TrEMBL record:
Record-given protein name: Type II secretion system protein J
Record PROSITE patterns: PROKAR_NTER_METHYL (PS00409)
Pfam families linked: N_methyl, T2SSJ
Matching PANTHER family: TYPE II SECRETION SYSTEM PROTEIN J, TYPE II SECRETION SYSTEM PROTEIN J-RELATED
Keywords of this entry: Cell inner membrane, Cell membrane, Membrane, Methylation, Transmembrane, Transmembrane helix
Origin superkingdom: Bacteria
Transmembrane recorded as keyword: yes
Presence of the UniProt keyword Cell membrane in the record: yes
Membrane topology classification: Single-pass membrane protein
Family named by the database record: Belongs to the GSP J family.
Annotated organism of origin: Pseudomonas ogarae (strain DSM 112162 / CECT 30235 / F113)
InterPro entries in alphabetical order: N_methyl_site (IPR012902), Pilin-like (IPR045584), T2SS_protein-GspJ (IPR010055), T2SS_protein_J (IPR051621)
Ranges annotated as spanning the membrane: 7-30
Cross-referenced SUPFAM superfamilies: Pili subunits
Length: 177
């Protein structure tokens, strides 16, 4: 009696088919995880860029000199003072800061008192819409500053990238709660 042990050709084909299906399912799962991670990473970068830009605007508004906010359609300008230098000492000179939308980019322009050098900083790309409003007790919310009253608050509404509308309301200096 000659008894051979081993696998038949049919058993080998079935085993290879099962391993191929498991490999394909594993590849699809891995590809889905990688795509999800890439999407989450891009979303995180977009949020960080937006947070950084809004943080710069907040800092400038909180350090604004009372009564220096000038708002015209699509343009905000203010003077800031008492920001910290690299040695953490307060500065005494004023700095004029303005924000403008050029194309799809939000720009911050700043020039110090007594210096002709203007610094330009791109805050955000892919901006779909930008609007500013100020609030004063006499007229409420409006899109331009009036010469007779100092605004109490500033509102920023921006649509950027996948964020349809982000709205921030900031109290201006010298306003008591």
């Amino acid at each position: 009696m000659n008894k051979q042990s081993g696998f038949t050709l049919l058993e080998l084909v079935i085993a290879i088919g099962i391993f191929a299906l498991l490999g394909l399912a594993s590849w699809r799962l891995f590809d889905g995880v990688v795509r999800t991670q890439q999407g989450a990473g891009q979303h995180e970068r977009d949020i960080r860029a937006l947070q950084r830009a809004v943080g710069v605007i907040e800092r400038d508004v909180w350090q604004a000199v009372a009564g220096s906010v000038v708002l015209a359609p699509g343009h905000l300008q203010l003077q800031r003072s008492h920001w910290r230098n690299p040695l953490d000492q307060p500065r005494s000179e004023r700095q004029t800061v303005s924000y403008r939308l050029e194309g799809a980019a939000l720009w911050r322009d700043s020039v110090g008192e007594g210096t002709p050098l203007m610094q330009q900083q791109k805050l955000l790309d892919d901006v779909h819409g930008l609007s500013w409003r100020v609030f004063d007790r006499q007229r409420g919310w409006h899109s331009e500053t009036a010469g007779d009253t100092a605004p109490l608050a500033l509102e920023l509404s921006v649509s950027v990238g996948r964020f349809e509308q982000v709205r921030r309301v900031l109290l201006l200096p010298g306003v008591l709660p």
